[in-house]
Design a protein that fits this description.
Layout (H helix, E strand, L loop, with lengths): L3 H7 L11 H6 L5 E5 L2 E4 L4 E4 L2 H4 L8 H13 L12 H13 L5 E7 L2 H18 L7 E5 L8 H6 L16 E4 L14 H19 L4 E6 L15 H12 L2 E5 L13 H4 L6 E4 L11 E6 H8 L18 H17 L1 H22 L3 E5 L6 E8 L4 E2 L2 H13 L2 E2 L1 E3 L2 E4 L7 H16 L2
Parallel strand pairs: 3-14, 5-6, 5-7, 7-8, 8-9
Antiparallel strand pairs: 1-2, 2-3, 4-10, 9-10, 11-12, 12-13, 12-16, 15-16
Length: about 450
């Protein structure tokens, strides 16, 4: 490995970073992370911090999960790669598909279609939803509905159903036939409604209205995150997702649960859909499926959809989608080990307990610091602070002040994620109470320095 002087000299000079302006990365070089152990990361200068970002929502088991590392090494020795396209498979992916069938059985999901990551999973689910209707003779069902503020990756299909202009405007025109309804976001919504249940009902009414306007017979699927993540951690009222499920059933619309973030324990339940008592038609997964150690994902498919595809005799169910690395044996081996460790540790239980502690502490910080406009969380280890320059007008806090908060929090031993006016927290699910207190202490210092 090159020395620190080389790394700093060449930082951001020969690569463009995702979700960043290239010029800003040059002017403000990114932190260079060179090590990770447990729930902590270390930068090129030896500064250690608690990783309150959890990699990118994906390192649920922390950076020292030896069983996953061992599985990757062993699989590289046995079979480093082979395709799962028509005619070939591999032993690891067969075993993994069996395990995932059991894990997702309570969600009504029994088949897996493997991908290279979350954006891929979303793309596959959107495509399979259209194909499902074509097999059934309803080829007019081509449209998609989704939530404003929702995030579904950055492929063209995913960006089209995304509900955030940051991921859309510079890349338009996007996929036609994608329509959005208001998110159940109590802090900012077009109804000026702060009561979660009332807001849920208003958003559901907006969904019904949009379906009536578009024509239910033209809509293939509704895609949503059970708890909106990258949009700022927006938990809906408990009535919301069940109501969406009921409306989809009423109109013959498929429900895609985007759980790239929420699957495998993040919400305090094993899946986000299960958290709300809902069985989706498709579930998009990735991230924590390998603890972030290997790019991998899976779309899980319901029995009802499986029956339509597997009983087809017309040839319309032949799947014309897939990736070179779908079912990669090394990724499958990593996922097998990761799933075993995830279940052994019952990480969803720790996520619920530590998440409650973190949320309670954040609410106290909100009472202490005037720049905190809203505190969101209460469902496992996914929380957010929305920062404002003025509580009355809800005007977002300035970028320079938010950058200062990030800098001071990092200096005090905690890495957090800034997204617009939000500080988003998604730490590993193996967090301890002491780690929670460390996060809160560093944030207190950061907020105080704004």
């Amino acid at each position: 490995m090159k020395d620190s002087n080389f790394l700093k000299e060449n930082n951001a000079r020969h690569m463009w970073h995702p979700m960043a302006h290239p010029a800003d990365s040059l002017a403000n070089p990114p932190a260079i992370i060179t090590g990770g152990k447990g729930v902590r990361i270390t930068d090129v200068d030896g500064h250690e911090t608690i990783d309150a970002v959890g990699g990118l929502w994906n390192v649920n088991l922390g950076y020292s999960c030896q069983p996953v590392k061992d599985a990757i090494a062993q699989q590289l020795d046995a079979l480093p790669y082979y395709s799962t396209f028509r005619g070939t498979s591999n032993d690891a992916v067969i075993e993994l598909s069996y395990m995932l069938r059991d894990f997702f059985a309570p969600d009504g999901l029994s088949r897996a279609f493997f991908t290279s990551g979350g954006s891929d999973s979303v793309e596959i689910a959107l495509r399979l939803a259209r194909q499902y209707h074509k097999i059934r003779g309803e080829s007019g069902r081509t449209k998609y509905l989704s939530l404003k503020k929702g995030y579904h990756g950055t492929h063209t299909g995913g960006a089209s159903v995304n509900g955030n202009a940051n991921f859309r405007t510079q890349y338009e025109p996007l996929l036609p036939g994608c329509f959005h309804i208001p998110a159940p976001y109590t802090y900012r919504n077009p109804f000026n409604e702060t009561d979660p249940e009332k807001l849920s009902n208003l958003c559901i009414a907006a969904l019904e209205d949009e379906i009536a306007f578009q024509g239910g017979e033209t809509i293939a699927a509704f895609i949503m995150e059970p708890i909106l993540g990258a949009g700022g951690v927006i938990p809906p009222h408990k009535s919301f997702m069940p109501a969406v499920r009921a409306i989809c059933d009423k109109h013959g619309i498929l429900l895609i649960s985007d759980e790239v973030i929420t699957a495998f324990g993040r919400t305090g339940s094993w899946t986000g859909a299960r958290h709300w008592g809902v069985k989706p038609d498709f579930m998009c997964t990735a991230k924590a499926i390998t603890n972030g150690y290997f790019p991998f994902g899976a779309v899980m498919i319901s029995e009802e959809v499986v029956e339509v595809f597997e009983s087809d005799t017309s040839g319309k169910a032949a799947i014309g989608s897939g990736y070179t690395y779908s079912g990669h044996p090394v990724g499958a081996a990593a996922a097998i080990a990761c799933l075993k460790e995830t279940e052994r540790l019952n990480v969803h239980e720790n996520a619920a307990a530590r998440g409650a502690e973190l949320f309670a502490g954040l609410k106290k910080l909100g009472e202490k610091h005037e720049i905190v406009g809203d505190v969101r969380g209460g469902h496992g280890l996914m929380c957010a602070l929305e920062l404002v320059g003025d509580r009355a007008s809800k005007a977002p806090l300035g970028k320079d002040q938010i950058a200062r908060i990030h800098e001071v929090t990092y200096a005090n031993g905690v890495m957090v994620r800034v997204s617009g006016p939000n500080i988003i927290l998604s730490p590993p699910l193996v967090l301890t109470t002491d780690d929670v207190n460390g996060i809160l202490s560093a944030l207190d210092a950061g907020l105080g320095a704004a």
